[in-house]
Amino acid sequence: MARFIKDISATKGQAPGSLIFIGDQKIATPIIKVMEYDTDSLIEKELTGINEGAINTKAQGVTWINIFGIHDIDMIQKMGELFEIHPLLLEDILNTDQRPKYLDKENHNALILNILQFNILANEITAEQITIILGQHFVLTLHESQGDIFEPVRERIRNKKSKARLNESDYLAYALLDTIVDNYIILIETIGRKVEDLEDRIFSHKDAKIAEEIYNLKTELNFLRKSIRPVGDLMIHLFKSEHSLFKKKNFHYLKDLSELVIHAIDVIELYSNMVSDQLSIYNANLNSRMNEVMRVLTIFASIFIPLTFFAGVYGMNFSYFPEIEFKYSYPLFWLVTLSIIVSLIFFFRKRKWF
Amino acid sequence: MARFIKDISATKGQAPGSLIFIGDQKIATPIIKVMEYDTDSLIEKELTGINEGAINTKAQGVTWINIFGIHDIDMIQKMGELFEIHPLLLEDILNTDQRPKYLDKENHNALILNILQFNILANEITAEQITIILGQHFVLTLHESQGDIFEPVRERIRNKKSKARLNESDYLAYALLDTIVDNYIILIETIGRKVEDLEDRIFSHKDAKIAEEIYNLKTELNFLRKSIRPVGDLMIHLFKSEHSLFKKKNFHYLKDLSELVIHAIDVIELYSNMVSDQLSIYNANLNSRMNEVMRVLTIFASIFIPLTFFAGVYGMNFSYFPEIEFKYSYPLFWLVTLSIIVSLIFFFRKRKWF
Amino acid sequence: MARFIKDISATKGQAPGSLIFIGDQKIATPIIKVMEYDTDSLIEKELTGINEGAINTKAQGVTWINIFGIHDIDMIQKMGELFEIHPLLLEDILNTDQRPKYLDKENHNALILNILQFNILANEITAEQITIILGQHFVLTLHESQGDIFEPVRERIRNKKSKARLNESDYLAYALLDTIVDNYIILIETIGRKVEDLEDRIFSHKDAKIAEEIYNLKTELNFLRKSIRPVGDLMIHLFKSEHSLFKKKNFHYLKDLSELVIHAIDVIELYSNMVSDQLSIYNANLNSRMNEVMRVLTIFASIFIPLTFFAGVYGMNFSYFPEIEFKYSYPLFWLVTLSIIVSLIFFFRKRKWF
Amino acid sequence: MARFIKDISATKGQAPGSLIFIGDQKIATPIIKVMEYDTDSLIEKELTGINEGAINTKAQGVTWINIFGIHDIDMIQKMGELFEIHPLLLEDILNTDQRPKYLDKENHNALILNILQFNILANEITAEQITIILGQHFVLTLHESQGDIFEPVRERIRNKKSKARLNESDYLAYALLDTIVDNYIILIETIGRKVEDLEDRIFSHKDAKIAEEIYNLKTELNFLRKSIRPVGDLMIHLFKSEHSLFKKKNFHYLKDLSELVIHAIDVIELYSNMVSDQLSIYNANLNSRMNEVMRVLTIFASIFIPLTFFAGVYGMNFSYFPEIEFKYSYPLFWLVTLSIIVSLIFFFRKRKWF
Amino acid sequence: MARFIKDISATKGQAPGSLIFIGDQKIATPIIKVMEYDTDSLIEKELTGINEGAINTKAQGVTWINIFGIHDIDMIQKMGELFEIHPLLLEDILNTDQRPKYLDKENHNALILNILQFNILANEITAEQITIILGQHFVLTLHESQGDIFEPVRERIRNKKSKARLNESDYLAYALLDTIVDNYIILIETIGRKVEDLEDRIFSHKDAKIAEEIYNLKTELNFLRKSIRPVGDLMIHLFKSEHSLFKKKNFHYLKDLSELVIHAIDVIELYSNMVSDQLSIYNANLNSRMNEVMRVLTIFASIFIPLTFFAGVYGMNFSYFPEIEFKYSYPLFWLVTLSIIVSLIFFFRKRKWF
Question: pTM for the complete prediction?
Answer without folding.
Answer: 0.86
